[in-house]
User: Fold Glycosyl hydrolase from Streptomyces longisporoflavus.
Amino acid sequence: MPRTTREPSAAPRFGANYTPSQGWFHHWLDFDIDAVRADLDAIAALGLDHIRVFPIWPYFQPNRTLIRPRAVEQLVALADAAAERGLDVNVDGLQGHLSSFDFLPAWTQTWHRRNIFTDPDVVEGEIAYLRTLAAALADRPNFIGMTIGNEINQFSAGPHPDPDRITREQAEQWLRRVLAACEEGAPGRLHLHAEYDAAWYQDDQPFTPAQAARLGGATAVHSWVFNGTAQRYGREGVATAHHAAYMIELSKAWADDPRRPVWLQEVGAPAPLIPAEHAASFTEATVEAALDCADVWGVTWWCSHDVSRSLSDFPELEYSLGLLTNEGKVKAGGEVLGRLAGEWRGREYAPAVRTTAVVVDDSTAARSACAPGGAVFDAFMGLVADGVRPTTVLASRVGDSAHLAARGVTEVVRPGEVG
Assistant:
């Protein structure tokens, strides 16, 4: 008999990507632990249980052989302040890229231009840096683990204006090495890597779905509907509300472990595609759809606080993504996420098994079929609109009865078969 429900698992975690209210991520240059504590008080008051923290790589490692001890101490102080407020901490290492700005050390640029994924000296510097951060936090009970960096795959291909081009094989070799460095620094923690959706949707992206779904302790999903989803399907479209759930289920096609945890690590309500008056309904619909998927480790909203209007040159949408205003006032989306966190605390988490699977081509050169407007994407969303709860399966696994049984799949649908 096919299974109809999953075994109950730990309730999903709820958290926020911590964007400091004072100075944005430049706060590391003028670190004020009291300002950090005030921000963390506001995040904890929402009922959230963790934060994702972003050291700025060139601020922490301005020279390849200098990892600033004071900066590492400040990171540990932030983690300890979070612990005092019942918040666990995940730390991103290689920042990398944040909110349209690149932050790469001078020792990788211009006169010292070197590929950040393949140059032996640069990679050794990255390994030392990641290992140092992990080791500094290894004895903190509230330390979740390291994320390699924020969407660092954007440096490896277009549309980045000056990419460090690599092959898929080089991307995987690099990922294995930097993940191993995190494990050396903090053995047994949840270490993972996180790409923006080009890894899933862009045919020539060297970071692949298989890497995302098989390397590291969990699969990270960054779901943003400004990628063409909201533009094509509308603010209230089924695809817009279910984009995060779709990415979670798409990751399951590529995973070798049918119970691999998936972390919805970034998701937000970008204006004007999601107007302020609709942020609450979008937040609720997105989270409820995502948690109708099995094996979700947690939901981490982007972001905790709005970006101050005193800071210039951000894309307009970046100023209003917070759960809280820059002054710390709870916004409508923050109220909804806090309420959902409370409702899910202690609740049994056992979504019904998804028995219908849309077939996904194994070729990474066919990833655009999975992107908004692609055949796989539209087939999945068409089934959702018809009341079906679909998942996905690789074409190479359609005939693997053991794989299908392990996932509870009883019906396989090819994209062209969906009206």
